[in-house]
Amino acid sequence: MRIVFFGTTTFGIPTLRLLHQNGFEIVAVVTTPPRPQGRGLKLTPSPVEIAARELNLKVLTPENPNSQDFVKILSQYTPDCGVVVAYGFILREPLLNLPRYGFINLHPSLLPRYRGAAPIPRQLMDGCTESGITVIRMDKGVDSGDILNQVRVEVDSEETAGELEMRLARLGADLTYTTLVEMKEGKLKSQPQNHSLATLAPKLTPADRIIDWRKSAQQIHNQIRALSPEPGAVTHFRSRELIILRSRLLNRKAEVAPGTIINETPGLVVATGTDLLELLSLKPAGKKVLTGKDFRNGYRPLTGERLG
């Protein structure tokens, strides 16, 4: 089977490698063009482009994959199926109709819940204890196509977005491979989504990163792990930005104003709107990542000082 693979982020790399290793003919890898990154704004290829070149695969980087010019170029590769994993563009007709088996998409949620750009962070922010991966047949909508395969997983209460993404990426690679084998053997079954149950997972905004210490310890803990390791939840200490990367619930009631640093306890402990929360890992602006204990020993917060 001739596959054209669409992907950009590291989430797609396990699937690309597994399909390549197991005999699927990857005729082209389509990814976003190199973007400026770092202080020098050096043009940097996407993680999928780097992985594809390591596998000696053909790479295409269109600015607009739906343009007539690109569809014409891709038609020359005569793909049987398109596989999309975290590509970053919405694909439209006539591109969707190009492969004879159409396009399939691997999505890191239990569709129809959490359709959209940021399903993993949104699930953790909402405190979901169950997540999963879904392979759908793509249609003109956003994550609305028929379900071809789906796997459920439990979410650990301490798991960060980065950790869950890695776990789902590996499971997703296996599920995509299984789906393509079933497609090749004519055994594929599909199930329409129940659109009345659909929820959205919109792209993260700067406001999503700001910690409101008046919220409950559980809400803030969920926010921190939803944004870790990138882009990180944000608060301030002495007017300087702190990026909070990991926390721990202490299940002890806060007796002081939200955001107050509790100097009477070991580690870096902060009052929230309900209970105390320990900050285990954080990064002051322009500095390296510190443990909460090292931050406290280095910055020596005064009694009554607050984050916020």
Order of helices and strands: EHEEEHEHEEHEEHHHEEEEEH
Number of helices, counting only DSSP H or I runs of 4 residues or more: 8
Alpha-beta classification: alpha/beta
How far apart, in Å, are the first and last alpha carbons? Answer: 55 Å
Number of strands: 14
- Helical content band: 25-40%
- Average pLDDT, rounded to a whole number, is 96
What Rg, in angstroms, do the CA atoms define? 22 Å
Strand line-up of the largest beta sheet: 5-2-1-6-7-8-9
| Contiguous uncertain segments of 5+ residues | none
Bin the strand percentage. 25-35%
Gross morphology: elongated
Main sheet attributes: strand count, strand direction, barrel closure: 7 strands, mixed
Quickly describe the structure:
By secondary structure, this protein is α/β, with parallel strands linked by helices.
Q: Which features does this protein show?
A:
elongated; 8 helices; five-stranded antiparallel β-sheet; seven-stranded mixed β-sheet; 308 residues; alpha/beta
Chart the SSEs and their pairings.
Elements: E1 2-7, H1 13-21, E2 25-30, E3 35-37, E4 42-44, H2 47-54, E5 59-60, H3 68-75, E6 81-85, E7 103-107, H4 119-125, E8 130-137, E9 147-154, H5 161-184, H6 206-209, H7 217-226, E10 233-237, E11 240-253, E12 268-271, E13 275-284, E14 290-291, H8 292-299
Parallel strand pairs: 1-2, 1-6, 2-5, 6-7
Antiparallel strand pairs: 3-4, 7-8, 8-9, 10-11, 11-13, 12-13, 13-14
